[in-house]
Amino acid sequence: MGNLRGKYAIVGVGETKVGKLPGIGTLTVHVEACKKAIDDAGLKVSEIDGLLTNQPLHDPFRTYSVVVAHSMGIKPDYSLDLGLGGATPVAMAQHAAMAIDAGLATAVVCVHARNQASLHLLPKQGMGVTRAYHGGVRDGCEDFEDPYGVMSGPGHHSFAAARHMHEFGTTSKQLGAVAVATRKHANMNPSATMYSKKLTLEDHQKSRMIIEPLRLPDCSLMSDGGAAFVVTSAERARNLKKKPVYIMGMGNHQPFASVMDAETLTTLGGAVSSKMAYKMAGLGPKDMDFAQIYDCFTITTLITLEDYGFCKKGEGGAFVEGGRIEIGGELPVNTHGGLLSHAHLEGMTHVTEAVKQLRGGDVEPERQVKDAEVGVVSGHGGYASTHASLVLSNRPS
Amino acid sequence: MSTQSQYKYTKPLPEMDPEDRPYWQSAKEHALKVQRCDDCGAWNFPPRPLCRKCQSAKLIWTKVSGRGHVYSSTTQHHPILPSYTKDDLPYNVSIVELEEGVRVISNVVGCPPDQVKIGMPVEIVYDDVTDQVTLPKYKPRAN
User: Fold this and answer.
1) ipTM of the complex model
2) Residue A371, domain CATH
3) Which residue on chain B is closest to A211 by alpha carbon?
């Protein structure tokens, strides 16, 4: 490992409007995001020979990457639909780099889009939550969850939150600090779903429980929208329109398949995955100017910050307090507003936001992390079971 | 615990596939069984084709004690499906760790949801929700 360090770069990013986009088809949002990313890179569609998708689970297609590619006139030499849940966008950057390194493609678009907010499927009577909310797709454990009224993702993460509180004394207020910090960033980002909605810690504490211990603002949004990025070689990147953002380190780890066979719920795949990424990059948590941490729930951010070595295991609750993870703080986290307050596009915008921060000047001045040179992105998904990490930098060495 | 079968049970039921059918069959017989490896003795759950410890295919459905403790506990306040009404809320959803070491998701019943705590000793109770399906649930037990 280590030979891909700095050899590949993200050269284009594209984001559609997010929030509720009624009347716009899933495929249209995909194509719009791809086109924006390709234009941003200064490439022609004909120069794209690879495409990776992460099909929207509420509206699944067969051979989805091929469908998306041909919807915009790409005849790919390399295309795949990847399925690691919320870890997929980060994993896509890794797979794109690997495919280019293997000679299978030269420029790969990675995309995720969804119409989850408007195309919300009404569950059929008797159908379990897992299938109802995932377009009928099985997850392998639904027989042992759905009959007990488990709410899929929120249920799994509430188990993790309850354990974290039990083992380390973490409080609901500390989870609230994550929600508030993330919301402050969204309030600075006009494209965020929650741009004009403030959230205080008091609001968080008064909000209704969804699955105790998780309250409504501890849960991410349901969104329509799409985002995409383009990966190519570092060499080619230097001759393109935008400042390249180099892929310095990659990691990936899936420690279990179900919360029922997890050894622990308070250390997740990020502990291994981040170590792999740091090792490849030759960098560590102290070198990071920001972190874009997958935040399907506030507890995910808190656990991942520990797993990534920003604080010791069990100290995440204290770490996220006092503005430490806000822009201007010690470690700005989710500078776009995250899945909690920007939009839930499976973490695709965590990658695009990291790229924009590292280019400098691509975000509103008050959101720009000053002199950002290195950042880390986490992807997390499944049943808290999948994880991928990416260290990015605007310097190739 | 049994549910009268004159009304239609509308909440989700296990779909059952070849891998997990024996589990539900044993629940129906009120004698819950979990896969145990005949080679290394490891208990395996959720069900799988090979032992997760030693990859042996000799997994024998073996009766479990039905005793355990709460590993993690949550309270569901939000109606997740139309079949969950106000009368059902709030309800407990827990991960129960059985004495055999396997963890199962279930409901702790027989006490208000806010009284279910991590570490609490529990024992199995069979809820015959339909003529065909019995859901293993858990209730508090004296330590």
Assistant:
1) 0.95
2) 3.40.47.10
3) B76
